[in-house]
């Protein structure tokens, strides 16, 4: 586990104790009230569902804890997640090689997973998409769908009424991609970086 100091742009390895999670990729990490919450990911490219468990990291004591959680356990690989209030919203991912359109909510107080039904302009089943929360809205972009195509649409989930909206955007839209990062800044701007896309000739960039 590494941290970077913005002032001098220096990476530093953090000493860890407690229930340190196993090595993995494709997981997500969210911060809620000064604690980091990690879940998902896989230790092998052949995995068909994510590793079990939800881990919490205390950034003061540098200690991990494997939480005793309830509800329907998360299974999807390469989902996206965003924290809002005491909840973490998790969309999509892949189970046994197939993308899903499930929305799961993890409550950091009750430590419970809950599948949630939504309405509105529902996004397709996706994996490899990214999302970020601004105010009470989760913005989600990209991903890889069941038809084998990258998604270039922007969807927004209102966390108050659990309604999705497919947004009509202005300007030059990013290329359809998956695996990119999406980061909100000051509840106003969202920054996208990287990702995998396909050129017109079929090559992957």
From TrEMBL:
Family matches, as Gene3D superfamilies: Kelch-type beta propeller
A Pfam short name: Kelch_KLHDC2_KLHL20_DRC7
Keyword field contains Repeat: yes
Keywords: Kelch repeat, Repeat
Official protein name in the record: Uncharacterized protein
Organism expressing this protein natively: Astatotilapia calliptera (Eastern happy)
């Amino acid at each position: 586990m590494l941290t970077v100091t913005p002032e001098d742009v220096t990476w530093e390895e953090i000493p860890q104790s407690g229930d340190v999670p196993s090595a993995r990729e494709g997981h997500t990490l969210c911060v809620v009230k000064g604690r980091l919450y990690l879940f998902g990911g896989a230790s092998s490219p052949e995995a068909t569902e994510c590793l079990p468990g939800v881990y919490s990291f205390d950034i003061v004591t540098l200690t991990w804890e494997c939480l005793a959680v309830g509800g329907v356990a998360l299974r999807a690989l390469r989902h996206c997640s965003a924290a809002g209030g005491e909840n973490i919203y998790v969309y999509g991912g892949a189970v046994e090689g197939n993308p899903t359109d499930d929305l799961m909510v993890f409550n950091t107080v009750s430590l419970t997973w809950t599948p949630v039904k939504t309405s509105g302009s529902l996004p397709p089943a996706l994996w490899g998409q990214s999302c970020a929360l601004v105010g009470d809205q989760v913005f989600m972009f990209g991903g890889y769908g069941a038809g084998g195509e990258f998604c270039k649409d922007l969807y927004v989930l209102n966390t108050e009424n659990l309604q999705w909206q497919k947004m009509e955007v202005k300007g030059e839209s990013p290329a359809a991609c998956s695996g990119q990062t999406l980061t909100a800044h000051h509840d106003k701007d969202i920054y996208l970086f990287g990702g995998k896309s396909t050129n017109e000739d079929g090559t992957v960039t």
